[in-house]
Design a protein that fits this description.
Length: 328
C-alpha cells in the first residue's frame, strides 16, 4: 500500500509589504534586501486574522484540488510556530472552523521543517492502516513575532499557509523521509520569552524578548550543510540518485542558501523551485506553498520524483522523497 499526495492548496493574505515599504519602517534598502536575500515582497495577515484562519483556507483549497470534501479527512496535522494560542492547538481550531469534529487534530512544532515532519507522520499514520486520509497544513503568521525595529530579521519574514491532502492508495507516493534535529543551537534562532522558561511580563515586552531573534551568519552556513545532508541521506536511504529528481522544493529562507545547496550538491539551480521574491520566509508554510505553486504551474508531471528540503529553528532539518501521482 502507498500514501499519495491527492491535492495541494495554499492561502496568502492580500496585504503586500514591498521592500520600498520596508525602507519606511527600518534603515534598509531594496538593493540590500534583494542582493542579500532575493526577497522583493512579503504578505502580512490583517489585524484579527490568525494562523488557523490561513490554515483553514489552505486546507479548503487543497480539498478542492483533491476533489474531496473536508468531511472525508480522518486527521488534521498543523505545523506552526505561530499558533493562535498556546492551547487549544491550531489544528483543533482549524477542525472547528471547517465545521468538523471527532477527527484527530494536533500541532507539530518543528519550525521551518514542520510540514516535512508532518508529511512523514501522516505517511506512518496511513501506512500502518490506522487512518485513510488526512490534511497536513502549515500555517504561519510570522508578522506576529517579528520585531519591526530589527532590520536584520523583519525584512525576511512573511505570513501564509499551505496544505496537502494525503491518502492511502495502490500507488507509491510519499516514499520516505529524513528527519533530524539538534537542540544545542537553541539560541541561534528562537523567541526567548512567552513560554515557561521566561513567561511574558512587562520586562520581556519592554526588552522585545517575545519576538523572534536570529543569528543570521552562523545559520546561513549551517543551513547549507544540513539541507545538503538531508537530501543526500534521503536519496541514499531509498537507493536513488540526484539525477532521478525532477524538482526540489526547498525552504525559502534566502536565495543564496538555495543556490549554495544546489552548488554544493552539483545540481542545476533550475531544479530548485524558487518563489522567495514574492513571499519571503514564512517558516513551515514555505515548502507547502512552493509545492502547491509548482504543481499549479504544471512543473510536476505524473511519475516525477521530487524532493522537499528544509531547515529551521530547533534546529531541525528534513527532506521528503515523493513520487508524484497526480495528472495524466
Ligand atoms: N538592511 C541593510 N543592512 C542590513 C540589514 C538590512 N535589512 N540587515 C543587516 N544589515 C547590515 C548589518 O548590520 C551589517 O552591517 P555592518 O557590516 O555594518 O555590521 C551588514 O548588513 C551585513 O550583515 P550580515 O548579517 O553579515 O549580512 P548577511 O549577508 O549574513 O545577511 C541574512 C543576513 C540575510 C540574515 C543571512 O545571514 C541569512 O539569510 N541567514 C540565514 C537565515 C536563516 O536561514 N534563518 C533560518 C530560517 S528562519 C526561521 O526559521 C523562521
Amino acid at each position: 500500500m502507498g500514501v499519495v499526495i491527492e491535492g495541494t492548496g495554499s492561502y496568502l493574505p492580500e496585504i503586500v509589504l514591498t521592500n520600498k515599504d520596508m525602507e519606511m519602517i527600518v534603515d534598509t534598502s531594496d538593493e540590500w534586501i534583494t542582493t542579500r536575500t532575493g526577497i522583493k515582497e512579503r504578505r502580512v495577515a490583517p489585524k484579527g486574522m490568525a494562523s488557523s484562519d490561513l490554515g483553514k483556507e489552505a486546507i479548503l483549497d487543497a480539498c478542492k484540488d483533491a476533489k474531496i470534501s473536508s468531511e472525508e479527512l480522518d486527521f488534521i496535522l498543523c505545523a506552526t510556530i505561530t499558533p493562535d494560542k498556546f492551547f487549544p492547538s491550531t489544528a483543533c481550531l482549524i477542525e472547528h472552523k471547517l465545521g468538523l469534529k471527532g477527527k484527530v487534530a494536533f500541532d507539530i512544532s518543528a519550525a521551518c521543517s514542520g510540514f516535512l515532519y508532518g508529511l512523514e507522520i501522516a505517511r506512518n499514520l496511513i501506512e500502518t492502516n490506522t487512518y485513510k486520509k488526512g490534511a497536513v497544513v502549515a500555517a504561519e503568521c510570522m508578522s506576529r513575532i517579528t520585531d519591526y525595529t530589527d532590520r536584520s530579521t523583519c525584512v525576511l519574514l512573511g505570513d501564509g499557509a499551505g496544505a496537502a491532502i494525503v491518502s492511502s492508495s495502490e500507488e507509491e507516493g510519499i516514499i520516505g523521509s529524513f528527519l533530524a534535529s539538534d537542540g544545542g543551537y537553541e539560541e541561534l534562532l528562537h523567541a526567548p520569552a512567552g513560554g515557561s522558561r521566561l513567561p511574558s511580563s512587562f520586562y520581556t515586552v519592554e526588552n522585545r524578548l517575545n519576538f523572534m531573534k536570529m543569528e543570521g551568519q552562523p545559520l546561513f552556513k549551517i543551513a547549507i550543510i544540513t539541507m545538503c545532508e538531508a537530501i543526500n541521506k534521503v536519496l541514499d536511504k531509498y537507493g536513488m540518485k540526484k539525477e532521478d529528481i525532477s524538482l526540489v522544493i526547498p525552504h525559502q529562507a534566502n536565495l543564496r542558501i538555495i543556490l549554495g545547496v544546489a552548488k554544493n550538491l552539483k545540481m542545476p539551480a533550475e531544479k530548485f523551485f524558487i518563489n522567495i521574491e514574492k513571499y519571503g520566509n514564512m517558516s513551515a508554510a514555505c515548502v507547502p506553498i512552493a509545492l502547491d505553486h509548482a504543481h499549479r504551474k504544471g512543473l510536476i508531471k505524473k511519475g516525477d520524483y521530487i524532493l522537499t528540503v528544509s531547515f529551521g529553528g530547533g534546529l531541525t532539518w528534513a527532506s521528503n522523497l515523493i513520487k508524484w501521482t497526480k495528472g495524466d
